[in-house]
Amino acid sequence: MATLTYSNYYNQFQALIDSRQSFEICGVKTEDMLNITEVLEKYIESQYLKCRIYTKNRIVAGMAGLLNPALGIFSLASIAAHNILTYDPDYEIARDIANNRISVVYKKS
Fold it and tell me: What is the pTM of this model?
């Protein structure tokens, strides 16, 4: 998997997507994650490919059910609905907020 830095990802990501490669963008500022994932999503979809965007470790939200059952059920239902709506994506884009990185993984072989 190729590793790009936040400062130079824009010059390289299109070629990687065009060649159906997986890659990771490191050093992403938390406040820029949504914008970068939006750029990636728009480009992937412009190539007539499907993608799923998610936040890594989101299942932790379901663990909130231990403290508040209603919140836990809602969180798990939301995750399930999202997975159904984005069934069989060509790419998965994972925001890893804790490690300041975005992983872009090609899922088809």
Answer: 0.77
